[in-house]
Sequence to fold (361 residues):
Amino acid sequence: MPVSYTRKQVTDWLGAHTVAKAHDYVNAVSDLRWIRNDTLGGLVQGTRPRPYDVRVYFHDIDEDMWVESECTCPVGSYCKHAAALLVAGLAHLPQPVSGVRQELVTWLEGFRAARTAPVTRSKKPATTKTTHALAYVIANLYRGGPEIFLYKARVGTDGRIRAFDDPWDNVENALVKPPKFVVEEDLPILRGLWLDRSGKYAGSFGLQGTTGATVLERLIATGRAFVSPMASPMHSGEPCALHAGSSLHGKIAWHSLPDTRVRPVLQTEPPATVLLTATQPCWYLDAQSGEAGPIDLPWSAMQLGEFLAMPSITLDEAALVGKVLQEVAPDLPLPPAHDVARVQVIDATPTPRLSLDTRTT
Fold:
């Protein structure tokens, strides 16, 4: 038998503002159905081409009833789509006998259910099967350092991530009212990302300083952290799951650019796919092995950051840069200089091979 409820209860559960926003979506509800008599499900057409899949779970039906909702929209739960489903569901409830108040019908149905239910010795709390979880994907951007992208992901019976659904970035609201797929261990991570947010693109978050390193350790410990070497994490193959690895030795090398300029870069031994140089300490992430860990370096994080921020230089400028480094930071590697021995000298008088003339018209 479907659960009986009133519009006033819907307003109490989700708030008057949310119910008011749901008014335009009530007629967009389709495939409305009751599941196991305590779950109302359906599809609600929103602003995206694919309808949102909505579930409303009823708890403590015979006592002080309350609900828990789940939606595939970016909000995730307690949204206008859940309110629209509940309002549309009112039309599918058994109609009261003429002249009998709905409150009395609800009480009678509850009274009947309580008296006809089989007697049990103990009542176990209802458990809800986990179907989604929050996934963290770290990807290199085309410009700038790595960023963290958040996804609502589907999980298997073993609790492991099976597939990525939609991107998710509603962090601020989740810190106040977490959706169902955000669990307790996610909250310190989201709080750290939000307070130290420096994402270069909407929907992404950066990692900075000691806070960034702490957040990185925590999200890897969840078992739901992934690394992608490309800027578009969901368009570069399946991201690689991360796990804690041993520390790697780091060094600075001078990288040659196509225009013959050079710039300092951080490298690890053996090489890793993604390097985070803004955290303290620096970290590596490897998209092949799935390992992640700190990088052992002889320089402080501040000194390293200032050095790697150097603009690319020409070989003519390398002499000046090398002189300054020898004066103030002799432990840093010097840039390459011109190799005079490899310069070919041609001692001959130039002979013209091309002459130009102007034709008369």
About this structure: The chain has three domains: 7-112, 132-244, 248-340.
